[in-house]
Automatic annotation (TrEMBL):
Pfam families, A to Z: DJ-1_PfpI
EC number, as in UniProt: 3.2.-.-
Organism: Planococcus koreensis
Annotated protein name in UniProt: Protease I
PROSITE patterns to which the protein is assigned, alphabetical: PEPTIDASE_C56_PFPI
Keywords (A to Z) from UniProt: Glycosidase, Hydrolase, Protease
C-alpha cells in the first residue's frame, strides 16, 4: 500500500458533493492512508447533496495541522460554508506554507480563494467558479486535473480517477 503511515485531513459540512467527499477518502484508505473528517462540530452527522451522511471525527478548532501530511477539500455547496471559519483558513494556509498536498475539486476552490493562496497558481475547478479563481490571481485551466506543486485540483466527479491518481503521486513523493 503506497500511503501507509500517511495522515490526511478532509473537511466536511452539509451539502458536500457525495462522490467528491467519499471517493477520495475510500481510495486513499485503500492505499493505507489514515483519513480523518473535520467539521464545524466533532461527532456531527453532515448530509451530502444526495443524502449520503458523513460523521466528523474532529471539530476544525481541535485540529493541529502539523499532525497531517495532506488536506482534502470536497466540492458541492459545502465549501461556501466551510470557508467562513477562521480555523479552516488557518489550516489551509498552514498546509500551503509547509508545502503539504492540498486536494480540491469542483467548488472547493472557494475555500482556497478565501485562504488567499491562489495568486500565481495554476488550477482547475468547476467552470462555475472559473471567474472567482481568476479574480483570486490563479491561472484557470480546463483540464481533468491540474497539479501545481502541492496543489492538486480537479473539476467534477467524472474526473475523480485522474484526480486521485495525481494526488497519490504527489503523496508518494513525501
Amino acid at each position: 500500500m503506497k500511503l501507509t503511515g500517511k495522515k490526511i485531513l478532509s473537511f466536511v459540512h452539509h451539502d458536500f458533493e457525495d462522490l467528491e467527499l467519499w471517493y477520495p477518502i475510500l481510495r486513499l484508505r485503500e492505499e493505507g492512508a489514515e483519513v480523518h473528517l473535520a467539521g464545524e462540530e466533532k461527532g456531527k452527522d453532515y448530509i451530502g447533496k444526495y443524502g449520503v451522511p458523513a460523521t466528523s471525527d474532529f471539530a476544525w478548532g481541535d485540529i493541529t495541522p502539523s499532525d497531517y501530511d495532506a488536506l482534502l477539500v470536497p466540492g458541492g455547496w459545502a465549501p461556501d460554508k466551510i470557508r467562513r471559519f477562521p480555523e479552516v483558513l488557518n489550516i489551509v494556509r498552514y498546509m500551503d506554507k509547509n508545502n503539504k498536498p492540498i486536494g480540491q475539486i469542483c467548488h472547493a476552490g472557494w475555500v482556497l480563494i478565501s485562504a488567499d493562496i491562489l495568486k500565481g497558481r495554476k488550477v482547475t475547478s468547476t467552470p462555475g467558479i472559473k471567474d472567482d479563481m481568476a479574480n483570486a490571481g490563479a491561472e484557470w485551466i480546463d483540464e481533468a486535473v491540474v497539479v501545481d506543486g502541492n496543489l492538486i485540483s480537479s473539476r467534477r466527479p467524472p474526473d475523480l480517477p485522474d484526480y486521485l491518481r495525481e494526488f497519490i503521486k504527489v503523496m508518494e513523493k513525501l
